[in-house]
Specification:
Strand content of chain B: 25-35%
Radius of gyration of chain A: 34 Å
Shape of chain B: elongated
Helix content of chain B: 25-40%
CATH topology of the largest domain in chain B: Rossmann fold
Strand content of chain A: 5-15%
Mean pLDDT of chain B: 93
CATH class of the largest domain in chain B: Alpha Beta
CATH superfamily of the largest domain in chain B: Response regulator
Oligomer: heterodimer
Helix content of chain A: over 70%
């Protein structure tokens, strides 16, 4: 997926339409089959379509894309849209005529319109491409027999089935075999030829068990139950029926999950998936692909093999992306938890410093203020994001406590943009604290006149700008005194991780003001709100 | 004369409160107890106006003390180091608490409140609510909400929704009754989130049992046909919460 995105970006920069088109198609396939997100897939297909329509040399690609969109609608059971798409392809493109005919027949089959389905199957069978490829013919005859059987045209169903079976056996077409057997069993059952019905139902069962295709197994057990019942072998019929019911229930459960999944996607397809959900989604994807694959009694796709390979590649890429996301999440948590001991030990330094300078009573009050701060650190660092007002309250308390320890050394201002709703604005907890701490401990070393620290939060379009500004001695003398802050290193890492996680462009800049007149730290974060 | 009882199994914690009470002058009568048994007897005899009560008391708890006493006309302030479960229950019952080690300004605030007459009203009822929230059963629970002259006690299941009004919150009951409290909506979100309430919007906290329908465009209709927006950022988690039920 990253690769496809990079291709898209590069192609866009180079204004290379062919590359853009292929990248969009690729992204669409990944969305459709690996992420089961048809809505995004449609978006990409439409982008590709727009390119194909606008560039004269790429006009021929238009029909393949339209066909893919229609297939996607077919899988989503939006048959009207699917039909429109396949019809457009049928009229527009000679090369894709055959695929379009077969797909239109499938749509009519799914719509329970046997007359139309039969007409299109016949047209597809009469097509040149079908004459060249026995597997296509075998599948078409098999599907045709099912439509005939459902329409009650038993003789035609039997002859179509015979045609399909002979093609399968003559050419050894393994892919179509279990479906052909299952459809044959149904056709013979309807024709009251119980011997053949039983034979093909059992054959279908054996081959679909080998393939692990539950849908065909269910259908075979159903046919067997009917066969046994028709022969008066009730005990066996009951047994077969029980197997049929069990498989049906389990398939229904899967279908329901797919259905819920689909509804949810319709709802929030614009959003990125949460990492935790990715695994569940992946399973649902596997199941839905499986069920659609299982409806192979009707589904016919000449893209099948290419799709399978692309889907497998996409799955591998997706797995890697998930893993990366998890690693990021864990590392962020680890970084936050490293900040806690860092804060605690620095606090103990402050407290120790205070005790040597003051009486017991005020040292104790000071200690209690720090206990409060520590409680806030522990509570805040449990969360990825906290409301800005909570972070402000923490900074205020921290600065108050530190001014008490160093009376007359510095004063501070916390300046918040009036337009910011501090309850609704979210920030990563304690992001600025290490910089404030650095200014306090190192910024004013060896200076007579009191320093000034200004912390500010501003909103700038879709960014939150946070700054810590001091008028201290600047960084060079600081570096010379040998202090490299662990807190700052941790924060740099956190911003990097947050960027990777949110795909955002958060930045950290440490600016040395002219002539050692202080240091200014600017952090910009993507503007996040709770509501 | 103001009688104050301090109940804590750690002498240094009692000392801290004594120290914090120094500025309140000589007009205080202070009794301290190290065990639950002593304190139960002591409260019945001394009838204090203010009680500081520790959550953990050597294998017993401050809640057992509250269950055992019959005299309940005092201002109650719990003291605790980090018992999160208890803090949630204090908030539901509107019973004050202090975190240890106790900060001076927090202590002053609690004392100011404890000395108001209203703080002593309906304590028995609030203790009942506190104890019910500490039970791990599914019995219907109530919350206490303060108003100028006392407390209202509301059955959580009968609250349809809460609406923010700057720093006030309007609580709207299923029967149309409305209460306004001078606490931010965030406070009630904290209390009610675990009772199947969901904050769908900066201004709205709703009881999920009162949803009639929701649309994919992000609107919720409640049983009284009021339609509210679900904010874009909450849509995903809202749908998940609703579908999990």
């Amino acid at each position: 997926m990253d690769f496809a995105r990079t291709t898209l970006k590069t192609a866009t920069e180079m204004e290379y339409p062919m590359g853009m088109l292929v990248a969009h198609e690729c992204l669409a396939l990944i969305e459709q089959y690996a992420f089961s997100n048809p809505y995004r897939a449609v978006d990409h297909y439409h982008m590709a379509l727009a390119i194909a329509e606008n560039i004269a040399g790429l006009n021929s690609r238009k029909w393949a894309i339209t066909g893919n969109i229609a297939t996607l609608y077919y899988e989503q059971e939006e048959y009207g849209k699917a039909l429109d798409g396949f019809r457009a392809v049928l009229h527009g493109s000679k090369d894709l005529e055959f695929t379009a005919l077969a797909n239109i027949a499938n749509v009519f089959g799914a719509l329970n319109q046997p007359d139309s389905a039969i007409r299109y199957y016949r047209r597809a069978l009469a097509h040149r491409q079908s004459a060249e490829e026995p597997a296509f013919r075998a599948n078409l005859y098999s599907n045709l027999s099912l439509v005939y059987a459902n329409a009650g045209e038993i003789d035609s169903a039997v002859s179509a089935t015979a045609e399909s079976l002979s093609l399968v056996e003559t050419h050894g077409i393994g892919l179509v075999r279990p479906t052909a057997y299952a459809n044959a069993a149904m056709a013979y059952l309807k024709a009251n030829d119980y011997g053949k019905a039983r034979h093909y139902a059992e054959a279908s069962l054996a081959s679909s068990e080998r393939q692990g295709n539950l849908f065909l197994q269910k259908s075979a057990w159903g046919t067997l139950a009917d066969v046994f019942a028709a022969r008066g072998e009730y005990r066996q019929a009951l047994e077969a029926h029980q197997r049929y019911s069990a498989l049906k229930d389990s398939l229904n459960n899967q279908n329901r999950r797919v259905e819920i999944n689909r509804k949810q996607m319709a709802f929030d397809f614009e959003k990125e998936r949460a990492v935790a959900q990715a695994e569940i989604e992946r399973q649902a994807t596997a199941q839905s692909a499986y069920i659609w694959g299982g409806s192979g009694l009707l589904v016919f796709s000449v893209f099948g093999f290419i799709l399978y390979k692309r889907r497998r590649d996409a799955l591998a890429q997706k797995k890697e992306a998930e893993l990366n996301a998890q690693v990021l999440d864990t590392e962020l948590k680890a970084l936050r938890s490293q900040l806690n001991p860092h804060f605690i030990f620095n606090s103990l330094n402050s407290i120790g410093d205070y005790i040597t300078k003051n009486d017991n009573r005020s040292a104790k009050d000071y200690l209690i203020k720090f206990a409060k701060l520590m409680r806030a650190v522990l509570e805040n660092s449990e969360h990825d994001y906290i409301p800005l007002c909570d972070d402000l309250a923490f900074l205020e308390l921290y600065l108050q406590v530190e001014t008490k320890r160093l009376p007359g050394r510095f004063s501070y201002t916390i300046d918040v943009d009036d337009r910011l709703d501090t309850e609704n604005t979210l920030v990563p907890p304690l992001l600025l604290q290490p910089f404030v701490e650095n200014s306090i401990w190192h910024g004013f070393k060896g200076r007579e006149k009191p320093g000034q620290i200004t912390v500010s939060f501003r909103k700038n379009q879709d960014l939150l700008l946070c700054t810590v500004d001091d008028d201290g001695i600047g960084r060079q003398p600081m570096a010379a005194s040998g202090s490299r802050s662990l807190g700052i290193a941790l924060t740099e890492n956190r911003i990097r991780m947050l960027n990777a996680q949110k795909k955002a462009g958060g930045t950290l800049e440490i600016i040395d003001k002219a002539d050692n007149t202080g240091t200014r730290v600017e952090v910009s974060l993507p503007f996040e709100t709770a509501f | 004369m103001l009688t104050i009882a301090i109940i804590d199994d750690e002498q240094h914690c009692i000392n801290r409160i004594l120290e914090l009470l120094e500025p309140y002058g000589d007009n205080l009568e202070i009794a301290s107890f190290l065990t639950a048994e002593e304190s139960i007897r002591g409260i019945e005899i001394l009838r204090p106006a203010i009680v500081f009560l520790d959550v953990q008391l050597r294998g017993r708890t401050g809640f057992e003390v509250l269950s055992a006493i019959t005299y309940r006309d005092f201002s109650l302030i719990f003291t605790t180091a980090h018992e999160q479960y208890a803090i949630a229950a204090f908030k539901c019952a509107a019973i004050d608490y202090l975190l240890k080690p106790i900060d001076e300004s927090d202590f002053e605030r609690a004392m100011r409140k404890a000395m108001e007459k209203v703080e002593q009203t309906q304590l028995a009822e609030r203790i009942g609510i506190l104890l019910s929230h500490l039970e791990k059963d599914n019995a219907p629970k109530r919350i206490s909400i303060p108003y100028k002259e006392g407390y209202h006690f509301l059955d959580i299941r009968s609250i349809a929704r809460c609406e923010a009004d700057v720093n006030y919150t309007h609580i709207l009951m299923a029967d149309g009754q409305k209460y306004t409290v001078s606490k931010p909506l965030k406070h009630f979100e904290g209390l009610l989130a675990e009772h199947d309430f969901f904050r769908i919007h900066n201004s709205h906290l709703i009881n999920l049992d009162y949803i009639k329908s929701y649309t994919k465009s992000g609107k919720v209709t409640l049983l009284d046909n009021l339609t509210l927006d679900v904010s874009v950022r909450k849509k995903e988690s809202f749908i998940k919460t609703v579908e999990r039920r």
